[in-house]
Write a structure and sequence with these properties.
Blueprint (H helix, E strand, L loop, with lengths): L3 H21 L3 H9 L5 H20 L8 H24 L2 H21 L12 H15 L3 H9 L5 H26 L7 H22 L5 H23 L1
Helix pairs in contact: 1-2, 1-9, 2-3, 2-10, 3-8, 3-9, 4-6, 4-8, 5-10, 6-7, 7-8
Length: about 240
């Protein structure tokens, strides 16, 4: 178990990440992981965030399943599962320093792209489900950060915002289930302290969800997301510099 001061920092990060989720629907792991890995080993932070993602998926994604676009979901799902299997294999075998460097580079590149680039609104071909679903699955398994990659595809396939949100939510829930099965098989929940950490930080995740939901109509979501991307630029840069 990490020292008390580290646990306090972990609690603040988890609360902040799930407040952002409640405000914007933004992925909690994308927000939390670049900061958590400064305080926790990667292979301890990932199972913790995965459990909270599953709880959030039950609360948000499954209840909106009637709006899901099943055709697009089924296009992405097999490639996502392939990506998760590949990502867990890398997670188990690769040295942590290399993984943290990859996480920092990914967050830095994606945050910079999101702040500076306006993607075209024109639809993309269904064939893009294969590469984007696979890459999304890999990064979901490695860092829990596959959501933005799935969104790149779905946002240019679905025009209806309610269908888009419902499809992304259910896809992320299914991704979390696939990761849970893979993590259990790989023994990532067995190291000492993981279960206790998950239980200890659960109230922080729940408090963040409640707070974010209450602030949802009081704060402009697009401004919050811009601030989050700016924070992630700093977090990604420090990870890269630290692990070079």
């Amino acid at each position: 178990m990490p020292p008390v001061e580290a646990l306090f920092g972990v609690g603040l990060i988890v609360t902040f990440a799930y407040t952002v989720v409640g405000l914007t629907g933004f992925g909690a792991s994308m927000v939390a992981m670049p900061m958590l890995v400064h305080l926790l080993p990667l292979r301890m932070a990932l199972p913790m965030m995965l459990v909270y993602d599953l709880i959030g998926g039950v609360a948000i994604g499954v209840r909106n399943r009637k709006s899901v676009d099943r055709r697009e979901l089924l296009r992405l799902l097999p490639f996502m599962l392939i990506g998760v299997a590949l990502g867990v294999t890398v997670l188990v075998k690769a040295p942590e320093r290399a993984l943290l460097l990859l996480l920092g580079a990914f967050v830095l590149a994606f945050a910079g792209w999101s702040l500076l680039v306006r993607p075209p609104a024109s639809p993309i071909a269904p064939a893009w489900a294969a590469p984007l679903g696979t890459v999304g699955g890999v990064f979901s398994a490695l860092f829990g950060t596959g959501g933005p990659i799935y969104t790149i595809y779905l946002a240019r396939r679905l025009q209806d915002k309610s269908r888009l949100r419902a499809t992304i939510s259910l896809l992320l829930f299914l991704s979390a289930l696939a990761r849970l099965a893979s993590f259990v098989a790989a023994g990532l929940f067995t190291p000492p302290g993981v279960a206790a950490l998950i239980a200890l930080m659960l109230p922080c995740a729940l408090a963040g969800m409640v707070l974010g939901t209450r602030l949802h109509h009081r704060l402009p979501a697009h401004r919050v997301i811009q601030a989050v991307w700016a924070i992630l630029v700093v977090g990604g840069a420090t990870l890269v510099l630290r692990n070079l």
